[in-house]
Write a structure and sequence with these properties.
alpha/beta, CopG family transcriptional regulator, Ribbon_hlx_hlx, Arc_rbn_hlx_hlx, RHH_8
Amino acid sequence: MKDQELRTKAGDTEKITINLGPVDLGQIDLLVQEGFYSNRTDLIRTAIRNQLSAHNDVIRQAVTRKSLVLGLQHFSRTDLEAIKRTGDKLQIQVLGLVSIGNDVTPELALETIDGITVLGALHASPAVKAALAGRIR
């Protein structure tokens, strides 16, 4: 799956905040005013994607080396109950989005998830996030 497809399928976005000096900000506004970009966000998003594309080989190698799942990984209550029955515990390692179902209880999460490494975003109920706080890296 291509990077653009992963961004589109994940659908959700995360807000980030950056600080820029007045000269950089002025240059961005000038490019927007001249019609190169529709707004500041469009320029910043394009610049980030260009940098990620320039470093794509390094990213792919690191994903492989660290055994990361690339993209979206969802765990439902049914998934975790099946893991619980086997007596195993999960080591979740994702570059992208980890999603834990809203019907997953904190107790079930603690019984089945040994650790979470996520480079991106973790979507779970506040109670599950609080329960797993010591296991999230």
